[in-house]
Write a structure and sequence with these properties.
single chain, two-stranded antiparallel ribbon, Luciferase-like_dom, LLM_FMN-dep_put
């Protein structure tokens, strides 16, 4: 399994001090968090994509390219690439460029986004969100696999004899996860292409996540990519830790109560009871995360949200120390125990290249 963190890049006042970081502060903090993730032995750093305040990551490939130059092992990803409002041609070019710069240490997660006003800003209609996701990804998939593309669709101008540059590294398209919280059409899309499916696993109860993952697994098998158990699944999660659970709850509560996404709603205790949020000791985080397998099966990627709601950088870096030193080593061992041999690892550039070369030998 791969373990890592994802950031939504929000600029939120610290409710305990009243201080609001500048956009520069927040961007630099995200870079520092990524570097810390590699330092403590995590596998993945993922950034969101947003084009509206109070968020800063409007250009994920710029940030990830910069981080690639300062890391050696970390897989760089997105926690949302807006397949609906971005031009698929530009996505193809930008992420192929990142793939070369990062020596293959990258992948990306397609998503529709959850900010309605973004659609008209980029000339689209939110009511066409699903149709945009389907058509745009169908084109992107071809752009990475065909040297010359002739194409015509509903939402962008036609292409005649078009070649996206640069071509993917080693002739291997970047691996794609399709992220969705509630849309079965996106789980179906991931299954159709044999891509990964990522459930954000932040706001919803386990039975909802279970239904979405099971739908994806069954349709993955339906399309002939393997057994349901061999489908590529990723989950999110959200944690805040201190050595003593009561200290964690006391420290995190003011941040939870005013968080932009769920503040002023359910109590912290109710939210922890009804969703995957874990606020407590490292052992409590281990126990709750291991329970994800009970409803998601053996899966390939676990990403945690740790740097939102105004938490200061110092606190986030302390959280990463706990995650890397006390939580992830145990999770690696426990998730590996009893994992069936035919359940694949998370795809990497190396594994995808090896598969490509094997298929070429078989054909020859």
């Amino acid at each position: 399994m791969q373990f890592g963190i994802f950031s939504v890049g929000d600029v939120t006042p610290d409710p305990t001090t009243g201080r609001t970081p500048t956009e520069r502060d927040r961007i630099k903090a995200m870079v520092a968090i990524a570097l810390k993730a590699e330092e403590v032995g995590l596998d993945v750093f993922a950034t969101g994509e947003h084009h509206n305040p109070p968020f800063v990551p409007s250009s994920p490939t710029t940030m990830l390219g910069y981080i690639a130059a300062r890391t050696e092992r970390l897989v760089l990803s997105t926690s949302t690439t807006l397949i609906t409002t971005n031009d698929p041609v530009k996505i193809a070019e930008d992420f192929a460029m990142l793939q070369h710069l990062a020596d293959g240490r990258m992948d990306l997660m397609m998503g529709r986004g959850n900010t309605g006003p973004v659609y008209p800003w980029f000339g689209q209609d939110i009511r066409q969100g699903i149709n945009l996701a389907i058509e745009n990804y169908a084109l992107l998939h071809r752009l990475w696999r065909e040297d010359v593309v002739n194409w015509e669709g509903k939402f962008r101008s036609p292409l005649q004899g078009f070649t996206s540059t640069p071509r993917p590294l080693d002739g291997v398209a970047p691996f794609v996860w399709h992220g969705s919280i509630r849309s079965p059409e996106i789980a179906e899309q991931a299954a159709y292409y044999g891509d990964g499916f990522f459930h954000n696993n932040i706001f919803w109860p386990a039975d909802h996540t279970k239904r979405m993952v099971e739908l994806y697994r069954s349709r993955y098998a339906h399309y002939g990519h393997g057994t349901p158990e061999q489908a590529i699944v990723g989950l999110g999660g959200q944690v805040f830790m201190r050595k003593n659970s009561q200290d964690a709850i006391r420290e995190f509560r003011p941040y939870f109560d005013v968080a932009p996404v769920y503040g002023h709603g359910p109590s912290l205790e109710d939210f922890m009871d009804q969703t995957p949020l874990t606020v407590g000791s490292p052992q409590q985080v281990i126990e709750k995360t291991l329970a994800f397998r009970d409803y998601a099966g053996d899966y390939q990627r676990q990403l945690f949200l740790m740097d939102h709601a105004g938490l200061p950088l110092k606190t986030v870096l302390e959280q990463l120390d706990l995650l890397g030193e006390e939580v992830v080593p145990v999770l690696r061992k426990e998730f590996a125990a009893g994992r069936p041999a035919d359940v694949p690892d998370a795809p990497t550039h190396a594994s995808l290249l090896a598969r490509k070369e094997s298929e070429e030998v078989t054909v020859a």
